[in-house]
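About this split. The held-out portion is used to measure sequence recovery: a designer receives only the structure tokens and must propose an amino acid at every position. Recovery is the fraction of positions where the proposal matches the reference. Here is one held-out target exactly as it appears in the evaluation file.
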């Protein structure tokens, strides 16, 4: 298991995170198969990759030849066996449901050789429990990417008590090969980034709820005052309010009431105001941008 020897990879889940990871893998020079159970989701994922690369070419950040080569390396499928045939690495990015991830990792563990790196992009779920159903859990790690994947440099490489040093080193080196700057984290609720980021986001929601300031001004306080690249409420819209709520509910159970879900978040999710993907969250969204 060596990152230098990874030439074929599968990404499971063609949503925002999955297609972003697939894009970076393909740009790295790795033949990449993007898998999802829904044909429409696969098509949208591949379309998003092409659109992102076209924007990169238009801005002069991506060479046309590099875009063309990456798209040739990338394919999509709804057949899991086809997606994982001959791979050296699988990165899972399906919805944040423990039972779903466990079923996938059990199937992967039984089908793939013990030297195939298995990584989950979960932002908060216990990787130890995901790996527990998998033959050879020593090859399971977390590789938590950040949105938008093709821009954000951080990857949390999360190790369980059973993760082998070889698997952890492989994930770290693969992250670097993808142009990322990884950190190494123990498997604990929320890891490092979600635990800190969600807590800041929840407090920003409570401030908006009680009228301390508008969402735009709360975000500006953090971008101009603390150098955040994006305010916590805009980031919540980008990630998805339903996703943030699920993570907060889990962290509240594991770490206590400081992660309790604010009423404003529950109400918005119930109304279907999920952020950018629904067109409204803490902001209105138009043409892919938050309207202030």
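Reference sequence for scoring:
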């Amino acid at each position: 298991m060596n990152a230098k020897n990874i030439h074929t990879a599968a990404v499971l889940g063609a949503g925002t995170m999955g297609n972003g990871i697939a894009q970076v893998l393909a740009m790295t020079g790795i033949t990449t198969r993007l898998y999802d159970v829904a044909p429409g989701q696969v098509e949208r994922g591949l379309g998003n990759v092409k659109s992102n690369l076209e924007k990169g070419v238009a801005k002069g950040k991506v060479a046309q030849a590099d875009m063309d080569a990456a798209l040739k390396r990338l394919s999509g499928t709804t057949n899991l066996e086809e997606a994982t045939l001959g791979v050296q690495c699988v990165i899972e990015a399906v919805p944040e449901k423990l039972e779903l991830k466990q079923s996938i990792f059990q199937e992967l563990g039984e089908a793939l050789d013990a030297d195939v790196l298995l990584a989950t992009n979960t932002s908060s779920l216990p990787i130890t429990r995901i790996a527990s159903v998998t033959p050879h859990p020593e090859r399971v790690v977390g590789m938590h990417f950040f949105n938008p994947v093709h821009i954000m440099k951080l990857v949390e490489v999360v190790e369980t008590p059973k993760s082998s040093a070889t698997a952890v080193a492989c994930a770290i080196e693969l992250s670097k090969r993808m142009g990322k700057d990884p950190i190494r984290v123990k498997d604990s609720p929320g890891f490092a980034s979600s635990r800190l980021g969600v807590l800041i986001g929840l407090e920003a929601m409570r401030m908006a709820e009680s009228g301390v300031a508008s969402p735009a001004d709360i975000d500006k306080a953090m971008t101009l005052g603390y150098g955040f690249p994006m305010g916590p409420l805009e980031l919540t819209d980008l990630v998805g309010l339903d996703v943030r709520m699920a993570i907060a509910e889990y962290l509240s159970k594991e770490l206590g009431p400081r992660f309790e879900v604010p009423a404003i978040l529950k109400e918005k999710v119930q109304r279907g105001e999920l952020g950018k993907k629904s067109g409204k969250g803490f902001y209105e969204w138009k043409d892919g941008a938050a309207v202030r």
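Annotator remark: Strands lie at 8-12, 31-35, 74-77, 89-92, 117-120, 140-144, 154-159, 181-186, 284-286, 289-291.
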